[in-house]
Amino acid sequence: MTDDVLLHARGLTKSFGDFTAVDGIDVLVRRGEAFGFLGPNGAGKSSTMKMVGCVSPATGGELRILGMDPAVDGPAIRARLGVCPQQDMLDEDLSVEENLWVYGRFFGLSRREVRARTDKLLDFAQLTERRHDRVEPLSGGMKRRLTIARALVNNPEVLLLDEPTTGLDPQARHVLWDRLYRLKRDGVTLIITTHYMDEAEQLCDRLVVMDHGRIVAEGSPRQLIDTYSTREVVELRFAVDEQERHVEAVRGVADRVEELPDRLLVYTADGDDTLAALHDRGVRPLSALVRRSTLEDVFLHLTGRSLVD
Amino acid sequence: MTAVARAARFVPSPAGIGLARYVVLRNVTAFRRAWLLLLSGFVEPVFYLFSIGVGLGALVRTVTTDSGTVVPYAEFVAPALLAASAMNGAIADSTYNVFFKLRYQRLYDAILATPVGPRDIAVGEILWSLMRGALYSAMFLAVAWVAGLVHSWWALLAVPAALLVGLAFGAVGMFATTFMSSWQHFDYITLAVQPMFLFSATFFPLSTYPEALQWLVAATPLYHGVALERSLVLGEVSWGLLWHVGYLAALGVVGVVGTSRRIATLLLT
Question: Which domains does chain A have, with CATH numbers?
Answer without folding.
Answer: 2-218 (3.40.50.300), 230-292 (3.30.70.980)
